[in-house]
Amino acid sequence: MINFRPSNFIEKDSEESKFFVINNDSLLIFSNEKFIRPISNDELKWSGLEVNEKHFLGFLNEDACYVISVEKDNCVLENYEFINLRGLFGRIPDELFGVISRGLQIITWSKTNKFCGVCGSPSKEEKRERAMKCTNCDADPVYPRISPCVITLIHKENKVLLAHNVNFPENFYSTLAGFVEPGESVEEALRREVMEEIGVEVDNINYFESQAWPFPSQLMLGYFAEYKSGEITPDKVEIDQAGWFDINNLPNVPPSNISISGKLIEAYINKFN
């Protein structure tokens, strides 16, 4: 069982500390072990890994838990490999994936904010809060930023509106999604994205649930929306095909154990069962 308590500050390191090891967007795992786990303090000491960054995440089963960014060239651990975090989604418990994705997003935030955006001087991480502060000027601290994204299942009775992105495989369809723009509410962003991508209007917008998506730092906000009016007209930029599908005769769609898009579709189908 996984018990994680997030925190931004710890008084001092412990010999019982645990470390999730990141190289680029990949996580260190042990190929001969059934379960994915962080490495121990002792394993880190003799691993040969060169640590570039280290960030405290919180307490995992009461042990201090960190994420570290490393160079892997001199690693001497046995039976290890680095696997892209996308490849772990749906294969490990959601709680564990959430801890690891928290670590990846903090690493990304730290790497991209080493220097002040106002004067260009080096920035330094504050000790008691998750913030980067300029060492030279009075620029506001930079906190980790999350990009909110709306993802929407449009429905009409026992049909759902699904779209084929230009980058999708053939016969693979999903719900519509897009980023919230400055000054918009989530509902305004949803209506705009739907109109831009397929040219229809929606009504009766209802929140479903959210999902952290650390590629690099998105928060997916899932909604149901009822079709109101308009003829489906794909924009041919992001969406090349879109249409209505009977819930009993769907094309290939994202699996519900990986994507909030799949969860939206599954939840709507279950209303009729």
How would you portray this structure in words?
The protein has 273 residues and is α+β, with helices and mostly antiparallel strands. The chain folds into 3 domains: 4-111, Alpha-Beta Complex (Nucleoside Triphosphate Pyrophosphohydrolase), CATH 3.90.79; 113-144, no CATH class; 147-270, Nucleoside Triphosphate Pyrophosphohydrolase, CATH 3.90.79.10. 17% of the residues lie in helices and 37% in strands. It is built from 4 helices and 15 strands. The strands form 3 sheets. Strands 1, 2, 3, 4, 5, 6 and 7 form a 7-stranded mixed β-sheet that branches. Strands 10, 11, 12, 13, 14 and 15 form a 6-stranded mixed β-sheet that branches. A hairpin with a 2-residue loop joins β10 and β11. The mean pLDDT is 93.
Tally the helices.
Answer: 4
Fraction of residues in helix: 10-25%
Shape descriptor reads globular
Oligomer: single chain
What are the segments in which pLDDT stays under 50 over at least 5 consecutive residues?
none
Q: Kindly provide the name of the CATH class of the largest domain.
A: Alpha Beta
Count of beta strands: 15
Q: How would you sum up this structure in a few lines?
A:
This protein has 273 residues and is α+β, with helices and mostly antiparallel strands. Helices cover 17% and strands 37% of the residues.
Blueprint (SSEs and pairs):
Blueprint: E1 4-6, E2 18-23, E3 26-30, E4 39-40, H1 41-45, E5 50-60, E6 63-71, E7 80-84, H2 94-111, E8 123-125, E9 132-134, E10 147-156, E11 159-165, E12 176-179, H3 186-198, E13 201-213, E14 218-229, E15 239-246, H4 260-270
Parallel strand pairs: 2-6, 10-14
Antiparallel strand pairs: 1-5, 2-3, 2-4, 3-7, 5-6, 8-9, 10-11, 10-12, 11-15, 13-14
